Amino acid sequence: MLVMGNHVAITVGGSNGHFELIVYKPLIASALLRSLRLLGDASASSEKNCVRSIEANRERISKLLHEEAALKLNVLTSDEFDKLVVPEKMIGPSD
């Protein structure tokens, strides 16, 4: 919520002042730097405490893969599904 408050402060500072007068620049700089610091710390904490410990639940993935609705409803044949759904291509960004 502090980042959202800083966003409002930056918006108000930018809209109520003329940048040439440098009246609101300290407010804008302070709020921006505070938000960047908070977001950086939050990202590092999330990576350390959440992302590093994530492991794939292979049993659940296999179960969901074989109980796919498209197969159950005969929307796709098993061969069509295998051609379209390649799990190896789903584990990272596509190029």
Automatic annotation (TrEMBL):
Gene3D superfamilies: Fumarase/aspartase (C-terminal domain), Fumarase/aspartase (Central domain). One of its GO terms (molecular function) is fumarate hydratase activity. It comes from the Eukaryota. GO terms for biological process: fumarate metabolic process; malate metabolic process; tricarboxylic acid cycle. One of its GO terms (cellular component) is mitochondrion. This is Uncharacterized protein.
